[in-house]
């Protein structure tokens, strides 16, 4: 087979794996998608796959390579994410751009000498994301972690002693996969008080954090024939990766100053959407009243499912948080919460309130995943919640986070005068954007080279947008925050 | 379409969903397989699907019903398990028997008045299995739980205090999905000492028990194109259900007095097998030296994967446990252990040592499942292991369990003179069989009606075999054990 190198090219051209000369035996197990994506990038680069050509149908290429279709879908998704290809539901996947520089597999960041260009050049796969998390940084302004120094160690020990003393022998055996009744009861009270949600404890499922919620729900939705969960754009990269791992597409719904664009959601005929309505990640926008009403119509008219990731709703500084969507739409909302932003991510405890139609399937998914969360930490948490200790913790965190937020805003004013600050009224992070043209991954890489870790906004974006960074302030001292932002101010001029 | 009711019937007849008049909208979400299986049973019962006819191809019926293929596969599997159909890999699934009585969906056992015939009439789906687990019983002789009254509460509290005092602030954040280094190090030492396994702590993955190991590994194998994991027969029903939930077939490998029949494994051309070599569940057989050698040849010749479920290997009463297969075959064995039989199932902590080719994929699966186990209990367990507390616990359990095992053997001799005892030299349970003809599920149901819970052997069997029960002794006092076995002796005569 020969292929024309000239543009305009024929969109009907479909490449086959024979033409690409792919040999799956060259691929490492567990890294086949990454390998395949890289082979396709090379083929695009040397024009074996010209711009405008169509990639083979996933089914066909999977059969030819003798891999599961998921491997191919994931590889195509990577090409779409890094801008080499575009997906057209009906027309397949089209090559849209050649790489601007020779591509190379993602490298682990080297603490000694990170290379700003290479390190973040591609959208991070789980590997880079994870390595970046593990990369040593003097000052870590990654979003998503509360003030861990405020963790109530003494109260935890007291509650654990009491829990262990009163735990029955059978409580040490295999338990209810939904979680211990005491914690489900305590969470029902918490949700009633802080999120205006009336919940039956029997309808609450305890999970290992929102990551597990997305994993279990992804499986349930796929089994129900739902092929995709629409996600906010910008929106959490981690959430997107979790849904993808379950074989779900994640078409983007743009976010504007009122929150997610429900009109776009409606047009894409999605059956499910993942939202952060109380405090959108990463923009910090609150879903407006008009949009909430639009969303409610969409859900009831199309029997749509809303996954409400209520990750940091309790942390508002200006006014009480808006009620959860779940409180008004229990039959269409799958509500996900956790203690990761209230106590510590390391506890790996979260909760899900599924709509009735998915409730049993979700419990089954949890049972088959791990037979249920560990019992003792659930008992401890139940005691912290019922004793008022969690409320005290929340008040303490609000005060401390607010001070750190102020320190960050001051530092941005001082060191990044051209930056626009978004979402500073709530949460554990804020977002800044620049009205300029540069690659924000390079800004993040340059900062990391100076020991300061931040998330480039483009990591959390599927479409094109202004360059920016997402800055967590909750887990760092005011002094560290000032120093970290100052470093951003120092490295920024070299990029524009 | 019309169908003949006469036998012999045409094996080429293939039913379609139009003929069956199935409407998937009638099925509850999450219960579609059960619903479909029930509809097919009804169709077999009223001869719409005559004996000898072929069920539609899973792909075809799934498309017609607009459900995922897994739903149909699972429904067919249920029919195969309850004897309505037989699977012939090439020739599809054939109806082989009509139900002997009108079928009904599995009922939850009623503590007040369980009906022996109805309660366990079908092989238990997860529902019945779970309900049975939750069913109140005065004396619970279910296998799989150690003496929970021996849980070292005081030592746990001391270790937790020390762990919490020394835990860094960043240790409360998102950690390494593989687990905390301290625990991986402690487990490496434990495995070297008790299981003759030399393990690099970096190659150990901490998980939420062996249930999660099977779930994660099932996913990894499926992604690698492995369609089935052969399992021991008899073998753990729970393990089989976990693998099935991940879409894997579980063809049976018979177990005889030397352990799993490796010649059968070789003939079935399986690529992976789940084994309990140190103390086969439920028979208690130790895999013989000859079989170990056969197994090693199979693994290296066919590049086969052995999943070694080392669930209770430390609990031997007669001699030191045999070394783990992992110790001699690190490149072909995925080793799974947990603290469920050493401390308590409620801790939900286990470990996996994957062969090199699956190591990264398994870490990824864990990351996407829940981002890793909770940090604090890992630190506590590491301290218990490194301080010698776990060894003391194991010695204590061995003494207590041995006494309970003796009480059970004595009670069987006194109350069940016709029973043959198997596997009493190790572990937390033993198995008894009867050289008679009766339905052991009825024996279990009759015992439960008298407040005594046991597992019928047929729950853990795929093929036909002698009736029997699996009796856990570790979690009950000698008095409760004697009373429970006496109840079995009382209800047994009514069945033969």
Domains of chain A, number: 3
State the shape of chain A: globular
What's the tally of helices of chain A?
Answer: 17
CATH topology of the largest domain in chain A: Aspartate Aminotransferase, domain 2
CATH class of the largest domain in chain A: Alpha Beta
State the separation between the terminal residues of chain A, measured CA to CA: 45 Å
Helix percent band of chain A? 40-55%
Strand order of the largest sheet of chain A: 4-11-10-9-8-5-6-7
Outline:
With 496 residues, chain A is of the alpha/beta class. Helices cover 41% and strands 13% of the residues of chain A. The first copy, chain A, folds into 3 domains: 12-95, Winged helix-like DNA-binding domain superfamily/Winged helix DNA-binding domain (Arc Repressor Mutant, subunit A, Orthogonal Bundle); 116-150 and 392-495, Alpha-Beta Complex (Aspartate Aminotransferase, domain 1), CATH 3.90.1150; 172-387, Aspartate Aminotransferase, domain 2 (3-Layer(aba) Sandwich), CATH 3.40.640.10.
Walk me through this protein's architecture:
- The structure is a homodimer of 496-residue chains.
- Chain A has 496 residues and is of the alpha/beta class.
- The first copy, chain A, has 3 domains: 12-95, Orthogonal Bundle (Arc Repressor Mutant, subunit A); 116-150 and 392-495, Aspartate Aminotransferase, domain 1 (Alpha-Beta Complex), CATH 3.90.1150.10; 172-387, 3-Layer(aba) Sandwich (Aspartate Aminotransferase, domain 2), CATH 3.40.640.
- The first copy, chain A, is built from 17 helices and 16 strands.
- Chain A has helices at residues 17-20, 32-45, 58-65, 69-81, 116-119, 126-134, 153-166, 181-195, 209-223, 237-245, 262-267, 289-302, 356-370, 375-386, 389-415, 440-449, 478-491; strands spanning 85-88, 92-95, 139-140, 204-207, 230-233, 252-256, 259-260, 272-275, 305-309, 333-338, 350-353, 419-422, 429-434, 452-453, 455-456, 468-472.
- The longest helix of chain A is centred in the last third of the chain and has 27 residues, at 389-415.
- The two termini of chain A are 45 Å apart.
- At the A-B interface, helix 6, helix 7, helix 9, helix 10 and helix 13 of A face helix 6, helix 7, helix 9, helix 10 and helix 13 of B.
